[in-house]
From TrEMBL:
The keyword Protease applies. GO terms for molecular function: oligopeptidase activity; serine-type endopeptidase activity. This is prolyl oligopeptidase. GO terms for cellular component: cytosol. It comes from Nostoc azollae (strain 0708) (Anabaena azollae (strain 0708)). GO terms for biological process: proteolysis.
């Protein structure tokens, strides 16, 4: 039987003499052919790699036991946060092991719910997922989007809520867009790209986003083009109708740049032009609501941790902007209006804090929450006096609360029952010093009373990019790791949004190495404080977190026993040439820029593998339909890693079929992948299970 002490024989990967010249630096790219996922050569390579990987995984005795435990834990009711439209309430629920959650409707909260849309009926294997929904203001029409096999491409349809029947409306070639109904419920705004080449739609770059209005009962070819910029191929558009229906707010985004523009169109005047309210990419502007043309925004302009401002559209020069809620020591994530009050969602050291203010910015109260947890929700209409939110931590599943705005009282609305006692476990937050002296927070979760004897199994998970914050979050998969005696550690690396835009920018572009230094320092802190030792330390992360794992395992192969990079960005010189990859230039820089090339080349995981190095046991995961981070990243990295690696530690790639970047992945596939991941670590770390 193959194991971590017996070297594996990997498939031979055909090499070419491909060479590129970047600003005078010659870079070889021998596995370029793997960028074509549809070639017979690549398909044969995928089959050969999967055969080795699944043979290895299936021979791990603990795998079936892990899968059974995962399945048992997963089999509990999971409720989404209820919301109201028209006279009805809506919510998502998963009975336990359903591949996709089901959308329900009910007239009052204690009524018998009715199924409105069950995505599980759309495909036998659960690979058609419901990605987006938008219900008309009168609560009679549902616009919903579907994704097949995890693709970012969506198709939008419309359902009559009363009859449950779909109308004839069918919109295609939609990506990175929601839908927003007009208040007369006659149609909605959405954004799309032009129809792509059918054969290469999963790899081709996406440019020239366009904002349209679709009128119910008409074909997509008749949709009205509201706004586009043929002179700005990289601009994207999101159109949202204000609650009172008077304005269309157009947020203009440029890739993943945190800065955006804000335009608007007066919907009460059929001849109104689009007004460019904010036309410089200088800060983030998130529209909240308006009072008679005075627009409220959450922005980080001159406030990297966020504040609320008011802009009078009749007097819109920036010197006339009014600050309503000033920047606080905490990071202001988002703001809504309920009970005619601002509900502000803050992060305090990466856990939730909810504050309520009146419309002039006076503080009213803080919503009482336990510490070290995440609260999400607080949606609703402007004058609603009740709302719902979910509360979760690393060891407590999402509990739904009903919150009364007038009294400040919370009560449990739905609480899942799960075969796991959270009181047997604990989460603490520590602060450690990174390479340059920066203090970085880290959550550590484990069984109560573990011994700090240097022998604990650690799964160190990180992200560190795109202004995304890692807050306490419940995962069924994680419970199995904790039950095995494992420790779960999550550092809040620079590049994330935990401490606002300055924290984000400290991990971008030429400062990206800070992110890797923060992660490496987290591992070193865990070792220095007797939690673990290198031979019991595994690292993981997905997407930008896959890049993190790839960079750290190539920079410090001695520090980790195992690495689990998922759907990672591994080729930092060519990422911008596929699908939406160009959009990440704002975060990473581009190899087409001579200075930025030097930074990228210095840490690009694919280009920093060294021949004859013993790398950690590695299980790379990707999917054949990932059109966000194309699988070529993982394919090329796996081929190069297998060529360079010496020693007996397995370096494998697991390639999921009929799946994408992760959104909408069916429960069955999630459980299979989680079982494989933990079984791999059981094997290579020598876990008793």
């Amino acid at each position: 039987m193959s194991n971590s002490q017996t070297p594996l024989t990997y498939p031979t990967t055909k090499k070419s003499n491909q060479v590129d010249n970047y600003h005078g630096t010659v870079v070889v790219d021998p596995y370029r052919a793997l960028e074509d996922p549809d070639s017979e050569e690549t398909k044969a390579w995928v089959d050969a790699q999967n055969q080795i990987t699944f043979t290895y995984l299936n021979q791990i005795p603990a795998r079936e036991k892990i899968k059974q435990r995962l399945t048992k834990l997963w089999d509990h009711e999971k409720y989404g946060i209820p919301f109201k439209k028209g006279e009805n309430y809506f919510y998502f629920k998963n009975d336990g092991l359903q591949n996709q959650s089901v959308l329900y409707i009910l007239p009052i909260l204690d009524a018998e719910p009715r199924v409105l849309l069950d995505p599980n009926q759309l495909s036998a294997d659960g690979t058609v997922a419901l990605l987006g929904i938008e219900i008309s203001e009168n609560g009679q029409l549902l616009a919903y989007s579907l994704s097949t096999c995890g693709s970012d491409w969506q198709e939008w349809k419309v359902r009559d809520i009363q009859t449950g029947e779909d109308l004839q409306d069918h919109l295609k070639w939609v990506k990175f867009s929601g839908a927003s109904w007009t208040n007369d419920h006659q149609g909605f705004f959405y954004s799309r790209y032009d129809e792509p080449n059918e054969k290469t739609k999963l790899e081709d770059v996406n440019y020239y986003h366009k904002l349209y209005y679709h009128k119910l009962g008409t074909s997509q070819s008749e949709d009205i083009l509201i706004y586009h910029r043929p002179d700005e191929k990289e601009w994207g558009f999101s159109g949202t109708v204000t609650e009172d229906g008077k304005y269309l707010i157009i947020s203009v985004w440029l890739g993943t740049d945190y800065r955006n523009l804000a335009f608007y169109k007066d919907l009460t005047n059929p001849n109104a032009e689009v007004v460019e309210l904010i036309n410089q990419f200088e800060a983030d502007y998130s529209f909240i609501d308006h009072d008679d043309g005075v627009f409220y925004f959450r922005t980080d302009l001159n406030a990297p941790r966020g504040r609320v401002i008011a802009i009078d559209t009749q007097n819109q020069a920036s010197e006339n902007w009014l600050e309503i809620i000033p920047q606080a020591p905490e990071t202001l994530e988002s703001v809504g209006i309920l009970n005619n009050q601002f509900v502000a969602d803050y992060l305090q050291d990466a856990h939730s804090q909810i504050k309520i203010f009146d419309l002039t910015g006076n503080f009213i109260r803080e919503v009482e929450l336990p510490e070290l947890a995440s609260a999400r929700g607080f949606g609703g209409k402007r004058y609603d006096t009740e709302t719902f939110y979910s509360f979760t931590s690393f060891i407590r599943p999402d509990t739904i609360y009903r919150y009364y705005m007038k009294t400040g009282k919370s009560e449990i609305f739905r609480q899942p029952k799960i075969d796991f006692n959270p009181n047997d476990y604990e989460t603490k937050q520590v602060f450690y010093q990174s390479k340059d002296g920066t203090q970085v927070p880290m959550f550590i979760t484990h069984k109560e009373g573990i011994e700090l004897d240097g022998n604990n199994l650690i799964y160190l998970y990180g992200y560190g990019g795109f202004n995304i914050s890692l807050t306490p979050n419940f995962s069924v998969s994680l419970l199995v790791w904790l039950e095995m005696g494992g420790v779960y550690a999550v550092p809040n690396l620079r590049g994330g949004g935990e401490y606002g835009e300055e924290w984000h920018q400290a991990g971008m572009k030429e400062k990206k190495q800070n992110v890797f230094d923060d992660f490496i320092a987290a591992a070193e802190w865990l070792i220095a404080n007797n939690y673990t030792q290198p031979k019991k330390l595994a690292i993981g992360g997905g997407s930008n977190g896959g890049l993190l794992v790839g960079a750290c395992m190539t920079q410090r192969p001695d520090l980790f026993a195992a690495a689990l990079p998922a759907v990672g960005v591994m080729d930092m010189l060519r990422f911008h040439q596929f699908t939406i990859g160009w959009a990440w230039i704002a975060e990473y820089g581009s190899s087409e820029n001579a200075e930025e090339f030097k930074t990228l080349y210095a840490y690009s995981p694919l280009h920093n593998l060294q021949m004859g190095t013993a790398y950690p046991s590695t299980l790379i995961t990707t999917a054949d339909h990932d059109d966000r981070v194309v699988p070529a990243h993982s394919f090329k990295f796996a081929a190069a890693l297998q060529e360079c690696h010496v020693g007996n530690a397995p370096v494998l790639i697991r390639i999921e079929t009929k799946a994408g970047h992760g959104a909408g992945k069916p429960t069955a596939k999630i459980i299979e992948e989680a079982a494989d991941k933990w079984a791999f670590l059981v094997r290579v770390l020598g876990v008793e299970f």
